[in-house]
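Form 7-S
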Amino acid sequence: MAERPYILMSCSVSMDGYLDDASDDRLVLSNEADLDRVDALRASCDAILVGASTVRRDNPRLNVRDEARIAVRTAGGQSPTPVKVTVTGHGRLDPTARFFTTGDCEKLVYCTSAAYAETRRRLGSAATVLDAGASVDMGRIAEDLYERGVRRLLVEGGGTVNTQFLTADLADELQLVVAPLFVGDSRARRFVGDGAFPWDPRRRASLAEARAIGDVVLLRYALSPRFSATEVMAR
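Output:
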């Protein structure tokens, strides 16, 4: 079996399990203290992966912000910000999105074979475009990232990507932050979609930590036997 990185999933949700609301404006779920925790988490990883819909809708930078953390990374021979990775079935990505234009790091785009030529044309020098095959397979992508030197991969969703990683039993750890609010709108994006998940009433996930961070709560779940070997790194 090919090797893959340690895969750590991180996201924030409302109390009713939504990543966002249905408006055009991004719903902020985390507080400043938790955002700083996420910044430290990003700084500890080799790559950050999000879905193409997240790039389009949220226009994230995904950069390490804290100068001291950047200094530690560069002193160790790493780029200031981890490699940015996105996955697309159709290649509908804007090369002027902040995912591509911010951060001194490599940007990788995995796309289907059908969209490969058009995606390369569209993005030009903004990113390295990689042919992921007839259909996107997160397991194969994780293995390819390992071959590229990624040993610790942070997955920040959205819902489709979360579902793909979790239903394939690829995640080693889940850090789920719950914000003290409800969205109450089924048009909004949920944490995951429908699927056959390995954790169910017969196999419950192991809760490793529950911690209040201001008005939000961090829940850390161990999802694989590899969790214990890297637990200290996630704090």
